[in-house]
């Protein structure tokens, strides 16, 4: 890919601000944790989605830029494009994740994390592993300046070594001042250069080897 083509995939608008990208990241992750703190066993995915929208409105968001996703139990194996199961209820010893795409001050936040209700040790380990793997891939980006495909090869190798299975369909994406979609950047996992700071979301989704549940973590790749 030419330098011009690569540069086009990291284009930003006239209003772009790295500080506002960081603010959007922080506010979105704050919302993820606020919502998770109010999720309870017995709640359906639809009820959790409605709760999430209420929390975001109370926090003063500009708008939602991608659909609210809340996955319970086996639905944590689903990829982004699959619909929620509105009647799926969270169990007493269960796992769930929240994925939000929200605009704050004209900039796109995208954050997701996995949580566990109860004390199932394997589910707790799965949730922790998704975050740990995200951190390891970010460190690899920081220190080795790897391009997108190499980052996800590293993620797959590390997931396997940790005893989990990486979902290869989840490969990260661009964010920017709203809307990033005009830049046609494709997936981070296909981006043939080291991603610049504040422009890409690193997504990690793993599953237990038995394929009964999974975990998800995503955040903005930023150098400071």
Automatic annotation (TrEMBL):
The protein depicted here goes by the name (Fe-S)-binding protein
Q: Peptidase M24 domain: which residues?
A: 20-219
Q: Which organism is it from?
A: Microvirgula aerodenitrificans
| Short name of any one Pfam family annotated for the protein | Peptidase_M24
């Amino acid at each position: 890919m030419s330098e011009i083509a690569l540069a086009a995939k990291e284009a930003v608008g006239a209003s772009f601000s790295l500080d506002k990208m960081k603010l959007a990241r922080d506010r979105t992750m704050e919302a993820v944790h606020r919502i998770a703190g109010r999720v309870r066993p017995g709640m359906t995915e639809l009820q959790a989605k409605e709760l999430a929208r209420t929390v975001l409105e109370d926090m003063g968001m500009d708008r939602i830029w991608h659909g609210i996703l809340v996955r319970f139990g086996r639905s944590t194996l689903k990829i982004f494009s699959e619909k929620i199961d509105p009647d799926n209820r969270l169990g007493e010893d269960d796992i769930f994740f929240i994925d939000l795409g929200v605009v704050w001050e004209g900039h796109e936040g995208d954050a997701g994390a996995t949580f566990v209700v109860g004390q199932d040790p394997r589910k707790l380990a799965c949730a922790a592993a998704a975050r740990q793997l995200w951190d390891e891939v970010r460190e690899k980006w920081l220190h080795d300046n790897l391009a997108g495909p190499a980052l996800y090869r590293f993620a797959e190798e590390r997931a396997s070594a940790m005893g989990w299975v990486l979902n290869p369909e989840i490969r990260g994406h661009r964010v920017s001042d709203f809307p990033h979609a005009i830049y046609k950047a494709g997936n981070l996992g296909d981006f043939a250069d080291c991603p610049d700071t504040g422009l890409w979301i690193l997504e990690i989704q793993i599953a237990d080897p038995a394929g009964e549940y999974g975990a998800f973590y995503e955040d903005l790749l930023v150098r400071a």
